[in-house]
Write the structure tokens for this entry.
Amino acid sequence: MNVAEDVKRYVEICQEKFWQNIFQFETEHLIEHLQGCRDILSVGCGPAIIEGRLSEHGFNVTGLDISAEALKCAPDSIRKFAGSAESMPFAESSFDAVIYVASLQFIEDYRKALQQTLKVLRTNGRIILMLLNPDSDFFKDRLREPDSYVNLIKHKSLSNIENVVEEFYTVQTEYILGVKGDRIFKSHNPSEAALYVIYGTINNNFIDKNTQRQKEK
């Protein structure tokens, strides 16, 4: 299949009840943790199904994705940019929050993406990383499917990612979204929870050290 056909197939799968329930769970979780934010950037948004729902709740959402073809399917209610997470096409201090919904682990240089995220966040900005949990039954089941998107994952180690995030942000974490077959429920059990979420706020110590380095150059 070519890119257009791949995107069409993905969008069709997203309409299935199971995935719609997943997206609704994720949307509600994001709304809860984005209170007080207005301008939101979603990195790796694809056809921006969740992002469209966030815009319906009053958020000013911008979607960034490497695939221009996927962005053609995104709703008109959000701003759309085709580009790389490692080189974001946005001015400094453009957003109150940046979200990665099951996308960071598919980015080649996620450290650089996190540095770029720091640049585009405003003072007291926050980051929300929804990561696929490789220890979950959900992930293991999908891994057995040769055509599943999880086979494209580049970074499985949650601890490695969290260590990098902590270089730039003050973090809190939790497991969410239990999945058993087609059943979706709240769970913080690592074997049941499909997602591991990292919530970050800008680490002022990193900013102070970085500013000092710039002055010394």
About this structure: The chain has a mean pLDDT of 91.
